[in-house]
Amino acid sequence: MLDIASLINLLAQPQKIVITTHHKPDGDAMGSSLGLYNYLIQQGHHVKVITPTDYPEFLSWMPGNEEVMIYTSHTEQAANLIADAQIIFCLDFNALGRINEMGELVRSSKAFKIMIDHHLEPEDFDDYRNWNINACAAAQLVYDFIVNVLHNKALINADVATCLYTGIMTDSASFRLPNTTSAVHRAVADLIDAGAVNWRIHELVYNSASENRLRFLGHCLTNCLEVLPEFNTAIIAVNKYDLDKYDVNTGDTEGIVNYALSISSIHLAAFIVERSDKVKLSLRSKGDFPANDICKKYFSGGGHRNAAGGHSTDSLQSVINQFKLILPEYKKLLIQ
Ligand code: 5GP
Ligand code: MN
Question: Tell me: the pLDDT tens digits for 174-232?
């Protein structure tokens, strides 16, 4: 374990640092990682962001993006960096299984491991953690880490601010979710003052779709949406054939589940997609309904109460059937 004083001492000298985040990184994963990256490089550290897998085009514009290493494309180099690191920051995840094969490399590295995360039930692999499930984003916790733990608010420059703003914006569904507190808005105001151009970031993330992506969304809503009124639940299930037909790329499916949740009577929405190696589920819920409970119990996953994910090696149709069979267990919560 590291106490705050030792951590501050450690960071006072240039260190070899790896920052990593969960596989299939989302806006918060990339925003928090690159926000921390842009902070640390100002202090002379040697920093590398390594992602377990690739990530969407609409997240590939953030300052420092050109320095990101994708593990699956550079396995040997990444393994060496992890083994050599003195500090490894683990952002937006708290279980080593979330970074695929990198998990065991991080576990066996001698580096100090620092977890900055807002998911439930952290695994015990870290030496220091800035962990809070009430935070709306890991990027909010990176802001908190820089301002309140390291007392270095002055180093939040435009690059740091831009990345952290992106993380908070995407994970709070554009400042809409219940955990978007006044403290979040104050932090975000600081980030805008530090140089984050809020309207431009919104454009880059949300208005950068391809024509295919929009037509795919149309297909999902017209042909794949199933509403189950007796459970206040909606499902959008997509097969691999259609993913290929619409040339769906990493990230193109993100957010589609929210359209199903936007129906007023719907309390639980599921997006179920047949990927090449497995079937992936994304669940979203309103209010107190524990979407993460279903993912954890039945689909080897987890997440937050209102946003959770999981997967299965069964066929698409059997996952859909299984999901429907689970609903009666939750009926009381779903129809209240
Ligand atoms: P998404 O539906 O966007 O893939 O994931 C929604 C939320 O659930 C994210 O916060 C993500 O971290 C979490 N999540 C998604 N898949 C998994 C999984 O397989 N395991 C765990 N523990 N969490 C997941
Ligand atoms: Mn997050």
Answer: 999 889 999 999 999 999 999 999 999 999 999 999 899 999 999 999 999 999 999 99
- Which ligand is closest in space to the CA of residue 281? 1
What is the SS3 string spanning 19-32? Answer: EEECCCCCHHHHHH
Which domains, and CATH codes, for the chain? 4-206 (3.90.1640.10), 211-334 (3.10.310.30)
pLDDT of residue 312: 98
Rounded CA Rg of the chain:
20
Nearest 10 degrees: Cα torsion 24, 28, 33, 39: 160
Both tokens assigned to 214: 């929009």
Please name the residue that has the structure tokens 């936007």: 262
Residues 31-87 pLDDT 10s? 999 999 999 999 999 999 999 999 999 999 999 999 999 999 999 999 999 999 999
User: How buried is residue 199: exposed, middle or buried, by Cβ count under 10 Å (0-12/13-18/19+)?
Assistant: exposed
The minimum-distance atom of ligand 1 relative to the CA of 22 is: 12
Residue 287: Cβ within 10 Å count = 10
pLDDT at 251 over 90: no
CA 152 – CA 143 distance, rounded (Å): 10
Residue nearest to atom 14 of ligand 1 (CA): 309
- The answer to whether the pTM exceeds 0.85 is yes
| Residue 308 CB less than 6 A away from ligand 1 | yes
What's phi and psi for 48, nearest 5 deg? -130, 130
Looking up tokens 């996953």, which residue turns up? 301
